[in-house]
Amino acid sequence: MTNIIKSICPATGDVVWEGAAATPAEVHVAVSLARAAFTDWSLTSFDHRANIALAYAERIRAASETIALAISRDMGKPLWEARTEANAMANKVKVSIESYNERTPTRITDTTRLSHRPHGVMAVFGPFNFPGHLPNGHIIPSLLAGNTVVFKPSELTPQVAAIMAQCWTEAGLPEGVLNVIQGARETGAALLEANIDGLLFTGSATTGTFFHKHFAGRPDVILALEMGGNNPLIIQDPVDVDAASDLAFMSGFITAGQRCTCARRLILPTGKFGDNVIEALKAKIGNVKIGRWDVEDIFMGPVVSTGAAEAAVKFEAELLDKGAQSLTALERDDAFLRPGLIDVTGVNVADEELFAPFLQVIRVPNLEAAIVQANATRFGLASGLICDDVEVWDHARPRLRAGIVNWNKPTTGAASTLPFGGPGFSGNHRPAAYYAADYCAWPQSGQVVEKAVGPAMRGMK
Predict the structure, then answer these.
(1) What domains are there in the chain, each with its CATH number?
(2) Which of 9, 81, 167, 260 is catalytic?
(3) Measured between alpha carbons, how far is 260 from 203 in angstroms, rounded to an integer?
(4) Chain segment 281-298, per-residue pLDDT in tens
């Protein structure tokens, strides 16, 4: 029996895509095609692969409006924001080429050689929040290194994958080098059991930890896991209250709180300054424009599904039951959520990543207590400090345990020329973005001379 998956636009409730999920047999066919294509692709020159990638970037630019529309309809992201994602997809190629040349160089001397070799067949699992940009950030470095790819997008956001595949085909990518399989849990499970050489994943800690356990004792399969965070944002006086609240608002609520770098915990000093930041933030929450992805001048759309909205409201209720104090309650209308703000100072809160526009406020007496609270998490993806005192920044930065530590910028700010990842349950120490080249190829070194000469040997007559 064919298993049909459907993408339902959370902003309208309309079915915007439906198709058959790949069966386990079809998954294994896709992996076999990738395996068959690997040798020829891996032996092409890097320049040839890079030229195809550059051609892909041009086709992505040409299809950018189609890509943005697919992203917005699948997950509800405002069209203006989906357009920035499409643009980032095209820009990823140039950065990835630079990264490959810097991170995985070929170096040849008279007697030594260092080069890098691809792993083989890479399985890429895509997330729903950036269904184009994030898997694109795995696929491009993988193909540049000479790997072949089997790509399973999130079943919640399936549309953009086919557009990406078509752009690669038009760019000249040989058949079998990139294979897209649609589906949910059963399809993903079949891909885990297939003959793959690497798994590249962006998603939740629960799923990433399952993958890590699944491949225990399998050093032959490389894993690159980016698993989100329970990210802290510290605000300290002196700083302009309105600027601080703007940065906190952006950190917590951009993309309806559905970025893995969104702030989840807002750490404020006790006293009048902290009170003023809260009041400014509450005012911004009351005035924010929320609506369908195709409405102009909105800041955010819905979360990805009504189920995700229900989970956020349930999480808020559980905190209230534990003694937390609501500052601005979540307001729900189907999948739409007006952001929530809650004071959890002194409350035993589960160390979980909630993918929703919801900030937990923690009040502290001083900077040292703020740093302790910031690091009180099993995650370590992103953190931020907002203050105007460079000495405070210099003190806090080396004490904050996170892969991304921003000063007077949103926690969601990340440069494509830098690594992306963090310690703890935020990943397995294989950061993506500029460092993706590191997990897409392995080094091959050797001593070399052109003419065979027997070595000098002792103890021989």
Answers:
(1) 4-227+427-447 (3.40.605.10), 231-407 (3.40.309.10)
(2) 260
(3) 8
(4) 999 999 999 999 999 899
